[in-house]
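Per your request, structure below.
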């Protein structure tokens, strides 16, 4: 019986690898002007006597989590994350560079991390501010239209009453009856329904209040706070994580 010989490993198709590169030094004007929104950076002194190779060896395990691809390029570690695990302590960052540089007489770790989550938290308040302006414009327009319709209806009724238009009198809507509280609801202590006069007074009082977009402004405050807290907290946590790895704490 003749069998087919297995293909050698070199003949098998290989999955394409993502090629990582260090970011160019000549960043665009857009990145220089607005990059601070979604980037977190900082420096950290290396322990005395620790070499560049040893420092990178200590930092590399932090990037060995599922969903993270990293490469070592000279004196730097470059990484990118796709579908990072929830247990990943750097999951909030989508990519970044950890580079060892010489600062005066002391080598330091300089990290530059990119986070789309921070960008989303920064853009969200602007989006809700836009929603607030749309809400205010819509409410003002609806109030103006309702006031114009009410004014036209009153003018028409006054004109019909003055000219004695019989047809208009016949088609005039009958007055609505007042709501009556059900005896069972009354026995259970339910409050009596408001009269038509009270509801009209409440509507008039509400119409006097200026248009408000308070819900949108609440979300603006929430996302603005998330951005400020996240930017400070994530930078501090990342620096603390790198310090533990470098110093073996």
């Amino acid at each position: 019986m003749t069998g087919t010989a297995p293909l050698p490993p070199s003949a098998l198709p290989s999955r394409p690898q993502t090629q990582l590169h260090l970011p160019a030094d000549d960043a665009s004007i857009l990145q220089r002007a607005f990059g601070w929104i979604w980037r977190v950076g900082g420096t950290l002194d290396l322990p005395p006597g620790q070499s560049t190779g040893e420092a990178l060896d200590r930092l590399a395990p932090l990037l060995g989590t599922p969903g993270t691809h990293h490469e070592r390029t000279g004196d730097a570690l470059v990484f990118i994350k796709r579908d990072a695990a929830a247990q990943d302590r750097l999951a909030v960052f989508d990519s970044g560079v950890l580079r060892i540089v010489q600062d005066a007489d002391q080598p330091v770790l300089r990290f530059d991390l990119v986070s789309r989550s921070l960008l989303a938290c920064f853009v969200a308040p602007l989006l809700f501010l836009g929603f607030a302006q749309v809400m205010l414009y819509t409410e003002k327009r609806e109030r103006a239209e309702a006031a114009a319709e009410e004014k036209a209806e009153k003018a028409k009724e006054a004109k019909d009453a003055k000219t004695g238009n019989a047809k208009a009198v016949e088609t005039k809507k009958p007055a609505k009856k007042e709501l009556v509280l059900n005896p069972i609801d009354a026995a259970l202590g339910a409050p009596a329904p408001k009269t038509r006069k009270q509801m009209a007074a409440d509507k008039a009082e509400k119409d006097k209040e200026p248009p408000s977009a308070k819900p949108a402004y609440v979300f603006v405050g929430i996302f603005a706070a998330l951005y400020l807290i996240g930017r400070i907290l994530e930078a501090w946590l990342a620096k603390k994580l790198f310090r533990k790895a470098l110093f073996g704490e």
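The chain has seven helices and five strands.

Regards,
D.
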